Amino acid sequence: MVAKRIIPCLDVKDGMTVKGVHFEQLATIGDPVLLGERYAAEGADELVYLDISATNEGRSTFTGIVRRIAERINIPFTVGGGISSVDDAARLLDAGADKISLNTAIVNAPSLIDRIASKYGSQFVVAAIDAKIIDGVWRVVTHGGKRLTDKELFSWAKEVRSRGAGEILFTSMDNDGTRRGYPCRTMAALSEMLDIPVIASGGAGSVQDVIDVLTEGKADAALIASLFHYGEISVRELKEKLKQAGIEVALNYAENIPER
Question: Any idea of the CA torsion for 35, 41, 42, 43, to the nearest 10 degrees?
Fold first, then answer.
């Protein structure tokens, strides 16, 4: 049985980790590299860093952070935000990122997936899909949920898979930051439809929420922010509880864990 992954998510704005609700009302959490070090020591399987400001100047600054992460963290990490070309992806991969996450840019130009996957391989490409329910249909949105597109979740997921995405990161914008749990039925349907890993994002407020999305939701991994950022539970504690619930996870924590 393939172990389920626990992936802390660090949204980065102006060089600091932040957290909000629906990408708004942002509170500063701390240094992204130091937090990443702690999560890695606690047993995180991977990390995801998202540059949520994503301006040209911000992306340049973010490249420096990626180099610091690569120098100090020994687990795989994905970076995203403002990647709109093969050159953008190349810069971040060259700086040490293990994968890149694509969202708005591939909605605007889907062939970007083909170009990056053909150059670097599908294993480097994570298609991030943000969606919300509108009139009973899961519609894809961009710009932190503010812009509605003409794409429907399931058909878009099939397309990004066919173009070469190696993983899908699905965020429910209706659940993001609310701590009310993940949309497990939708997650299960997405996971059953695809032959690539699906990462669940948006809504974890308790251990039970994570258990539910990894079992009922059939997600391959859970992306988590608030639970870890606010010190409600450590990665190690969460994994031990998942293990007790019969979920296969890797208990790969370090002996010495840095202070917060």
Answer: 120
